[in-house]
Amino acid sequence: MTGTVQCFVVGSPIGHSRSPLIHRLFAEQCGIALRYEKREVAPGTLAAAVAVFRQMGARGINVTVPLKEEACGLATALTVRARTAGAANVLSFNADGSLEADNTDGIGLVRDLESRGVRLAGERLLLIGAGGAARGVLPALLDAGVATVTVANRTVARANALVAALAGLGSVAAASLDEEFAAPFDLVLNATSAGLTSTGGPPVSRSALGTSTVCYDLVYGRAETPFLAWAGSCGVTRRIDGLGMLVEQAAAAFEHWHGRKPATAPVIAALRHQR
Ligand code: NDP
């Protein structure tokens, strides 16, 4: 089909990815002819895959676990947020021949929180996790004006490294998962790949939560996630999963590639309906 734009999403595993559906719905909305395919790409082989996609005339690639750091390393140009995160979820074949890495996870999270009326400016945050997702979202949260962020991680050395890397951007401190807190946080985000610890205990001390705390899980699924179920059992009423973030980070990539800003609310609703 003449004028059809080709894009890909890569990762391992990739079978579960909802990105093709999200981008198809955006493309339909905007009247853009798009072919968007998923490809299983093993760690260490992204460069070869990118070379093939370039040959095919692709415009862009979404990158998911576990290739986000590798994607950053391959790029010949990096946006500030990709450089700060050291991880990229978007690669673009630019007209000047450069391969540009971007990270839209942070803006995706912030847009989802804002669209739900969750205040960020001046708030105290607890971010659980210090992996690629935490790296991606922390700069955007600080940019949105949060007062303080405590990063709690199973491997405290990794939390310390993240805090050291981003300390210049705002008030950030590291903690262990079993730390007791003097006061509840305004917002607690789960950015780990495990809802509960491997021992089956709570993800963090209950002292992190108050009845007005908002709990947000970057993870999403058919049923309520273990983290959000735990928060509910502690009396937290405002609990949000990461489906909205998934759609918002995709929208930011779509806008960059196609120059059109899609409406996200109907796509989030369609995905929820589909579950
Ligand atoms: P990484 O593998 O880079 O990091 C995993 C994190 O989870 C680390 O902090 C790790 O701690 C922690 N962790 C893993 N297992 C356990 C456990 N049993 N107990 C406590 N902590 C644990 O993954 P990502 O950061 O890339 O992704 C994290 C999650 O966020 C994933 O589930 C991913 O699907 C989701 N995500 C959602 C997005 C969305 O759009 N909604 C976007 C991006 C990510 P340690 O350092 O000690 O190993």
Give the N-to-C terminal Cα separation: 32 Å
How large is the share of residues in beta strands? 15-25%
- Structural classification: alpha/beta
Number-wise, the strands total 12
The residue fraction in helices comes out at: 25-40%
The ligands bound in this entry are: NADPH dihydro-nicotinamide-adenine-dinucleotide phosphate
Mean pLDDT: 94
Main sheet properties = 6 strands, mixed
| Total count of helical runs of at least 4 residues | 10
Integer-rounded radius of gyration: 19 Å
Main-sheet strand order equals 2-1-3-5-6-4
Low-confidence stretches: none
* Shape by Cα distribution: globular
Q: Which H/E pattern describes the elements?
A: EHEHEHEHEEHEHEHEEEHEHH
Question: What are its keywords?
Answer:
globular, binds NADPH dihydro-nicotinamide-adenine-dinucleotide phosphate, 275 residues, 6-stranded parallel sheet, 6-stranded mixed sheet, 37% helix, alpha/beta, 10 helices
Protein model, in words:
With 275 residues, this protein is of the alpha/beta class. It contains 10 helices and 12 strands. The protein has helices at 19-30, 46-55, 68-74, 80-85, 105-115, 132-143, 156-166, 226-233, 243-258, 265-274, and strands spanning 5-11, 34-40, 60-63, 77-78, 90-93, 99-102, 124-128, 148-152, 172-175, 187-190, 214-217, 238-241. The protein has a 6-stranded mixed β-sheet, with helices on both faces. It has a 6-stranded parallel β-sheet with strand order 9-8-7-10-11-12, sandwiched between helices. Helix 6 links the parallel strand 7 and strand 8. Helix 1 (19-30) crosses helix 9. The longest helix is centred in the C-terminal third of the chain and has 16 residues, at 243-258. It is globular and about 60 Å long. It binds NADPH dihydro-nicotinamide-adenine-dinucleotide phosphate. NADPH dihydro-nicotinamide-adenine-dinucleotide phosphate (NDP) binds at residues 65, 105, 108, 129-134, 153-155, 158, 191-194, 197-198, 218-220, 242, 245-246, 249.
